[in-house]
Amino acid sequence: MFTEFETKGRRCVYRADEEPEVLLVEPLDARELEGLDAELSAIKEGCKQRLAYVALIVEDWNKELAPWTAAPVFGNVPFGDGAKDILEIIETGVISEMHRRFGTLKGADVIIGGYSLAGLFALWCCHESDLFKGVAAASPSVWYPEWMRYIGSHKPNAKRIYLSLGDAEAKTKNAVMATVEENIRTMYDTLKGLPGVESTLVFNPGGHFKDPTLRTAQAFIWALRP
User: Structure pTM?
Assistant: First the structure.
């Protein structure tokens, strides 16, 4: 059973164990809520911690999760620069509200994660904020224009970073999106060289749309390891 609240004008849904000791945060499209039971069940099966999980419902995926504007890469919908606003809502609204509801979360680790563009957003957040101990980035959109230049001049604050990709994701005629495997391998090589950062890169069978719920659960499970 999920509980809802609103913060900063945004709908959030959460589920929590008694006296949770770790907070998981994930931006979701409202349509993804139907798969949330399966995702959380898989996470619970794979970890021992008492968890609180909260999903921030995103209303405009391409606009709100993108770190800066970019021309359309597929279709005709451009990308916005709303990531900074969503990060602020998470920092000052979502996390604060979960602390208010669960005193055991004050001072607890926060892990941010997501799938696809939400995975890229999670990676961007850990470079912009020091509130996140871990990142669970499942099939993140690291093909995003200028992303590799960005990470070349910014260092992550998170201590644990999970990256994954479908092994067929780079097999696309879209020239921009075809860079995803090269980019994620380069990013992983960079992370491996950073002191104090533990990272992994996992290749899953299939393309981008295969088993997103399970892939996201696996990402959070790894980031939750002691």
Answer: 0.97
